[in-house]
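TA notes, week 10

Several of you asked for a full example with nothing omitted. So below is the full record: structure tokens for the whole chain, then the designed sequence directly under it. When grading your own attempts, check the secondary structure regions first.
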């Protein structure tokens, strides 16, 4: 792994361009970073990547490391506060790590994502959503991400232990074009509600479960309290204009 990542995780600190030390916060964990890196590095078709929310650049470092050396490998980040709230640390870390295969879009995602869509759908092979964590905003981000994502590509969503973001994942798991691909380690014990649901489910033989329960529910119960979830886009999003799923 890149030494800049190792140093940040070991010290729990980052530095801005002036060399000032800043305590690390609002960053993905090592386990989440390795999930991103392993997913991308194990699929050579992933070249164009997109991220909503750069912050101190830890997730960006993992992604850029994974696509390093790939033909047309390029990472796009949307972060309107990179040079203000985050003091340019994310971009500084990427440069310190020797990466130049990236670009920053300094707009809010509700403006930046539609702007990217104007240049064509299915342009990216991997998208990470880690922006504003209200349900409506996260859903809007994922709506555009799904259209920008090529078939066979991956949609990663961070902080799914936030109730609003988990609700978005619950919804996306009903999309016919998405399948659950992977998730990070547990952040905390399962909730009582999920534990009770899994206990009730355990009395049903596994071969009968898909006939009784929808795929989304089964996946949600298996997720427990994960902090990052990755879905794979396995087909075109060809839902009918009046599509609706009551599995939400």
């Amino acid at each position: 792994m890149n030494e800049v990542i190792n140093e940040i995780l070991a010290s729990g600190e980052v530095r801005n361009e002036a060399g000032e030390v800043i305590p690390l916060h609002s960053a993905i964990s090592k386990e989440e970073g390795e999930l991103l890196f392993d997913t991308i590095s194990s699929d050579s078709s992933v070249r164009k990547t997109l991220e909503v929310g750069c912050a101190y650049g830890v997730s960006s470092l993992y992604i850029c490391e994974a696509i390093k050396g790939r033909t047309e490998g390029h990472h796009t980040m949307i972060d309107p506060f990179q040079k203000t709230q985050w003091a340019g640390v994310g971009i500084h870390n990427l440069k310190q790590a020797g990466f130049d295969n990236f670009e920053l879009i300094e707009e809010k995602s509700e403006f930046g994502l539609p702007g990217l869509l104007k240049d064509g759908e299915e342009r990216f092979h991997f998208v990470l959503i880690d922006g504003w964590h209200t349900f409506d905003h996260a859903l809007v981000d994922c709506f555009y991400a799904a259209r920008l994502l090529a078939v066979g590509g991956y949609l990663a969503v961070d902080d799914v232990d936030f109730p609003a973001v988990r609700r978005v994942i619950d919804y996306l798991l009903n999309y016919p074009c998405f399948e659950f691909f992977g998730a990070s380690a547990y952040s905390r014990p399962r909730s009582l509600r999920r534990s009770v649901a899994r206990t009730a489910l355990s009395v049903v033989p596994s071969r009968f479960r898909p006939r009784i329960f929808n795929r989304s529910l089964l996946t949600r119960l298996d997720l427990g309290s994960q902090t990052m979830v990755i879905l794979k886009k396995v087909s075109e999003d060809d839902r009918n204009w009046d599509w609706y799923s009551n599995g939400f």
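The longest strand covers residues 149-158. Use that as a sanity check on your answer.
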